[in-house]
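S.,

Sequence below, as promised.
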Amino acid sequence: MNIQRPTLDRAAELREEPALTDRLRDDAATRVIVVREGRVRVVDSELLRVPVAAVVEATWALLGRDADGTVLLLAASPPETDSLDAAPDEIWLGLRDLGGRLSEQESELLISAIALAGWLRDAPFCPRCGGETELRQAGWSRRCLNCGRDQFPRTDPAVIVAVESHDGEHLLLGANANWGGRMYSCFAGFTEAGESLESTAHREIAEEAGVQLASLRYISSQAWPFPRSLMVGFRAVVTEDSVALADGEEIIDVRWFTRDEIGSALAGDGPVGLPGPASIARALIVNWYEGRE
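The prediction came back faster than expected:
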């Protein structure tokens, strides 16, 4: 298993500087990633960096340092803004649109920008008393002006599991009701209060597919900003291959697939659709198909 190392320098040591974003906005060298409704501008498979002066209206935060050391700001732009109309060679795209087209660093930057912009948009008030909040730590925390409570960008842990047969030659996937049966994927669910990730995996698989797990092992994780999840990926082996039953509500069908069927589906030739290349679900399926440990 490859150990994923951070590719984005988040420059966290700068966040405590008072009025940091104001100072950086006055610096002509500062560059900005603009997020509007979960989308960014992309040019030649890279996120477009623009000067501060190009942004008309936004909520600001520090993203970190670019590969060349340039400081990057996030501009969370309101949906109705008319700023930054795309030129012919530029386009607004979201994470699902981009798929695997971005480099590892650009992907981490994209996900961080979308996730932080969503929190800046959705959490202007205190969850305890409803009071107004002010941004602190260069956009990475809020303090309530009424009760003084601090809040931070929230990340909700969830598990996602590729379930294989006892002999390792079949993969169990499920069709979510929201997809109308058009796509099959790994099983996933949020961790409940007081639950471990391992307990979540066993519970979710039993609930959604009606199978018990004999073994479970961690593979990798992926931040997923819809709205603010951390997807923790596992591979599991079932106790009995023949017992599999969809819950009929969230999952409308479960099915064992052969390695040949998965290979065909990955190539886009059926028999079913699989998750897109931006998702950890597809990475787990590929991990199993290629026989990785």
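The chain has a mean pLDDT of 92.

Coffee later?
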